[in-house]
Amino acid sequence: MANGAVSRAAPRSMTPEERKVIFASSLGTVFEWYDFYLYGSLAIYIGATFFSQYPETTRNIFTLLAFAAGFLVRPFGALVFGRLGDLVGRKYTFLVTILIMGASTFLVGVLPGSATIGIAAPIILIVLRMLQGLALGGEYGGAATYVAEHAPHGRRGFYTSWIQTTATLGLFLSLLIILGIQTLLGAEAFTAWGWRVPFLLSSILLGVSVWIRMQMNESPAFKKMKEEGTRSKAPLSEAFGQWKNAKFALIALFGAVAGQAVVWYAGQFYALFFLQNVLKVDAQAANIMVAIALAIGTLFFVVFGWLSDKIGRKPIIMAGLLLAMVTYFPLFKAMTWAGNPALAQAQDTIKAVVTADPKDCNFQFNPTGTAKFTTSCDIATALLTKNSVPYEVVAGPAGSTATVKIGDSQIESYDAVKAAANAKALDTVLQKKINIALHDSGYPLVRGSVRVPDSKLDAFIAANPELKLDAATVRAGANTMVPTAKLVGDKLLTADEAAKAAAPDMAVYTVANGGAFKMVADPARVNWTSLIAILTVLVIYVTMVYGPIAAMLVEMFPTRIRYSAMSLPYHIGNGWFGGLLPATAFAMSAAKGDIYYGLWYPIIIAGITFVIGMIFLKETKDNDIDG
After folding, report:
1. Which of 217, 303, 553, 554 fits 148 for a cystine, CB–CB 3.0-4.6 Å?
2. Whether this model's pTM surpasses 0.70
3. CATH entry 1.20.1250.20 includes domain 237-344+526-626
4. So what's the pLDDT on residue 286?
């Protein structure tokens, strides 16, 4: 651990050189987060360009795998660049990380798609994505260490808290640039090539960031250590191979960072996921609400960093963890009533019952999106979870096909393996029956319109008796003549059906309320004020646990191994404990049939961190970090 407490000098104002240090470190880190988030924001376009040879589902899986690769390699980046930072210096190491991140991002913007260079395109893309993750794994520790080692004693929490705002600001920057370019170019041009522009613009940000960082000096603590000849010759072995240091890395991970990570992800990413995917609030509206909450809450990173210089890092972090543990359930339930009151009312009134062979009901943990759940129980529960429907599972006879009871409706599921080629048709029937039962029970589902070619009209009417349509009446109404070739392209007809029709054009009818069902939140009933207030509270929890933690991690370790020792627990905690939150929470909710059950994941991890932190984590604000 860093050297013991020192006498506290009166805090002084920030010097111009210190402002420059904070600005340079923060700007570079904002840029790296901007690069990192671009991939996630533009994943749909990246998948279509670099995985175009695969069907859409497989394409999406590979796109998510490439995205996940960036998270998974972050701890390895912490090891590689942490070691380099402890050997050759903070400044030059995070110059290297920003160059790697910037070059990798720019190359994504110019990389030819799979239609041009085949399988080489996705391979190169994944390599670039891994380089981005490695660079980010080295950037944060370098920036936090560099700023802290420039900060005067008694001001490290305040100075490093500016670094803590950078992930949020990077997300803002990426979204603003994407929205601006989309507006300027239009949807068609953006889809064709415009999505590359945000990646190419990173070269400008890279140039500015590198130029500013080149003007900076090495940190005083590292220069002193270098002059005294006390640098570690093997920082990784010393940090993690010697128990006197490794124990502090473990305490940092399990007594601070793991809990911080799940609160961070729950308060920002999972809250947005919950609004959009569980409550079915309009995506743009949800993004705006979260953006407003982040704009209000971001200042509190600095507030709590400043406060941690006064009362300590540990009390603020522990208080944030405790508040999250105690209030997550009531806050997310309040979010449901504010965001989709019709859904909340239906959930209180109607609960589905799934009767199935227990052996067919699996825990649907799927962090990469590659797992396939094919049993009749899994198919039924996944569909109910997707529609935010609470349910309970009742044990049925061994080998039986699962059934779903909603109100007075009893619906049989299917086994995808046994159904083989008929699985798609059976899935369509199952979804329709469940959706009709949910709609009739009061769930806020709406049914869209559908375009039906004349040759399929009679079959469509027969398959949808609930619409009470008459073929002659529909044919006598409005229609549009569409070339059969276009109908094939739009997947309204197969090539065989078009050939059988033997006509250049065909009438197409638009049937209102005859298309797919969709769970929605009525915009007129969405309570913006309440939702923004709840989201702001969640963001403030994030700032409590995240604002002081950079200073604490820096202060836990001696200068000779600081870069390595603080970076690894940080990136394991945030890359793995935090990164797995959405997939784990969804799987837990699916297993239990309760949209709130997944909240136990961040609550339990935060609780473990709280207990370990209260017992083993020592206060660090008065530590001397120059030793």
Report:
1. 554
2. yes
3. yes
4. 87
